[in-house]
Design goal:
The complex is a heterotrimer of chains A (259), B (160) and C (599). Chain A is α+β, with helices and mostly antiparallel strands and 259 residues long. In chain A, 31% of the residues lie in helices and 22% in strands. Chain C contains 13 helices and 17 strands. The longest helix of chain C has 18 residues, at 383-400. Classes of the chains: A alpha+beta (259), B alpha+beta (160), C alpha+beta (599).
Chain lengths: 259, 160, 599
Amino acid sequence: MLSVETFPTLQEAAGAVGPRAKFLGGGTLVMRAVSYGDQSFEKIVRAKTVDRAIGSHAAGLRVGAGATMADVLAARDLEFLHPVARAIGGPAIRNMATVGGNLFAPNPYGDFAAALLALDASVEMADGRTMPLADLLATRDHVTGLVAGVVFQRPESSAFRFRKISRVKPKGVPVISIAVHLKRGDPRVVFGNMAPVPARSVGAERALANGSDGAAIDAACAACLEGLAPEDDALATEWYRREVAPIHLRRLLEDGGQI
Amino acid sequence: MAKTPVTFTLNDAETALFVDPGANLNEVLRRGAGDLTTKHGCGQGTCGACTVLIDGVPHLSCLTLAETVERRRIDTAGGLAGGPNLHALQTAFMEGFAAQCGFCTAGMLMAAKGLLDANPNPTRDEVAEAISGNLCRCTGYEPIIDAILTAAARMQGRAV
Amino acid sequence: MSSIEFRKDLFADERDDTLKEIGKPTIRQDILGHVTGRTPFYDDHQFEGMLHMRAVRSPHHHAQIRSIDTSAAENMPGVRRVATAKDVPVNLNTLLSLINFGRDDEPLCAHDKVRYMGETVAWVIADTERQARDACAAVRVDYSVLPHVLDVEEAIAPSAPVVNEVYPNNTFDYHEKYDHQKLRFGDVNAAFAKADHVIEAEYQMSPIEQAPIETCGAIAAPETNDRFVCHTNTQALFFSLGTTAKLLDMASSRLHFIGGTAGGGFGGKVDSIVEPTAVLGAVLTGRPVRFAWDREEEMQVGAPRGGERWRIKDGVMADGRIVAREFTGFFDSGAYMRLSPYAIVKCTGHLPGPYSIPNVASNVYCVVTNRTPATAMRGFGITAADFAIECHMDRVAEAVGMNPVELRILNAYRDGDMKAHRRLAKNTALIECCQVAAGKAKWAISTDAAAQSSKVGGGGERAAIPESVTDEEGRIGTRRAGQTQGAAPATNSTGRVAAGTAGAATSGAPVQNSDMEIDAERIGHRMGSTPVSAPPVAPSPPVAPTPQAPAPNPAASVPTPPATPTPPPASEPYQPEKPFSRGVNRPGASRFTSGFRRR
């Protein structure tokens, strides 16, 4: 029997989530599961106050977990993330789907999480803990507590690039998505849908460590599948994903990344 | 089953209902409030047929937990016309053959209304973007985009 | 703005151009309802106390059902009834049985085994949809998984598992003789031997889901006088009504079907599954019942246009004339037949496409696999074959070094040409179509190709039916026994049909009467061995109504039997005052051809 528990604050709600209880963010994941009779949980937990703030922070920029994709698109500070937010859903979905929820969005979703991983974001939990986003993604199916916000540094101009590859035009669910942050000496290349959660391509990062000229791009594309384990789904086979991932990475590195 | 009271404004009418735990806004509008103008197409955010405006902003009613609309305003296609006078969008959809089976139409209209309320003079690309979360399987999108642009022009008193 | 260009210069002398609507802007008569949201779709009919019905579905492609334990589900909150195959009075049907085509092969609810992933094994009827879903999850089915086959050619191999025992060879039986539909016109092998090029290729089309925005669904409710009303979005209201009557062994006069408004269909709403299911729910509970597929069900169990595999072999002369074309086609019907056998007959009449080819042979197989059953979708039977044919035309053009549009014009059929299924082509327009398309695409064609016309050059020798070779390959059952050479048309002919032989037309259902007079006995679904009575000749005196109150126990599984019909006097069959007729009544024209056609 399904029940709903509403708490005044996120901190109080964090105490109520557990193995058979899901936290309701924008609703795009939890309500879908409810409508389709998901038997894995029987309690919906929600908080009355939602942190949708977007602003600067000691460590760079902070986005409240309750900020929607539409909030991101309205924030001038986050202009480099606008292509990512705009690639997610239609306007109605963007008015609902939250940054916090995207960190838990299963494949084939989770474009925003892939982008944040490329930015080396860290996650603030409701109880004050912080952890690297990579750690949260690795344990997200059984993490305790709730995400309050994400913190990351603003990338240098044009160093951050994103590409979403979808079979539906103008937009649709991604076959794969790629986020690249070309930091000097320590680049990040993240693929969505090339592993059970958004994952860094260690091979591509190694190849791009000393610049991104033609030879480095060749090497990055040749090595980009290292350690990645794509899966079959209704959109594409793992074979297809392996075939197209290097091609799209090359386009992103060569032309700067249009969606 | 314990029910939760929820009150909201539905197309200018104060509405108070008891809803089942976990009920989504779409089933509450359709089966609770009796507003059948909002359709249910997928229950998973893919089709947009259930689009309504919550406080003027497009939302998918099938993915909205009903009790979260407490004291908010919901607009559906049922409230689009002012009495016997059709909204400019409705007229433009009629004249422009922008519906065939009609199942996506209510959601299209509400997505379009959300756009025109915020941006009265949209470009063609902006209209396409505004309905990019709404699927139509019969008509094709071009007549729908044309109709929305026609409505926008008429609402601004511009020649079409 | 989209625009339509009317090429009234084409065939102008053959057309009476008095079109009142076509080409003029119009406002749909139903559109006011659409833009105000007031169009009544099936789900917009509200009933007090309506229950929600959901199906328990197979997670396996192919499995024996050992047992079904519904006890936990029955005790869950809100659950009114759990139903299984034994609750369906006549749990075996084939859609086309209503026109006497094919054998009953599909249960509404699986009982002995499941044959595709998502097949229904039980239903739950509960107060809310969520309660029905929760209870469905609590139904325990003990399966013994069987080997499955998902590929059409693997399915016709001798070692393939039998998917559907009604068709033990995994193929539909054509004409009670062959495991495929044959087409033989001329002698392809003799022509291949003389051809300058022989070009072969294979084409594969995936299943395509119709994906209407409104999923399949129906709401059924008890009505007065022991009838049931059913609001449905079926595309085939009387098909659905007849199917429901048969499966539930209920006189069709007890069913009041209301439909005609579908939120998109595209062929995906003809299969008549949700209607008998919803009515069964209403019969079992005595309450209004809604049975609707969610989006995942629409995609998983909603019948798509089936996948098809085609192999085409063309014999072509150096100048581009195609002298022989051979097809080997496989339709993936999925686990049950539904409309696929018919699609193949329709397809065979279409081969070899809109071209005049003097030698044609084709073997088309309707194959049973452990996939979701296939059904109608937008030109099914034709579209995928055309895709293969037109891809192949481009391949032929490349092989002979010819402009692909000119190749099509050269081989196009023309008015008066004999088609492979022995009907004369008329109203042909491929040449003009190619010419206009080439012009629009700014694709240069020769002055000779541009000067061709569909109305000139056809007929004469091209109207003749050639002597045709025949063979007896692929008799029912021989393939499983390993006694066939292969799937393609046989190369060793065993018979010849003389030139000019058109053959006798046959049809699945014999015409009841030459003038289509209604045969009273065939009105409505026949109940058991007792025929439904014909309308009485004279009005009968009023009789006291038989009480037909719903059974007090909602668990009653047997529907109330109808009142015993009065058999009609054998000597006085129903005689309408005038024979029933339809269509145009024009001297020399078939009355079943409506409207004007090019002559």
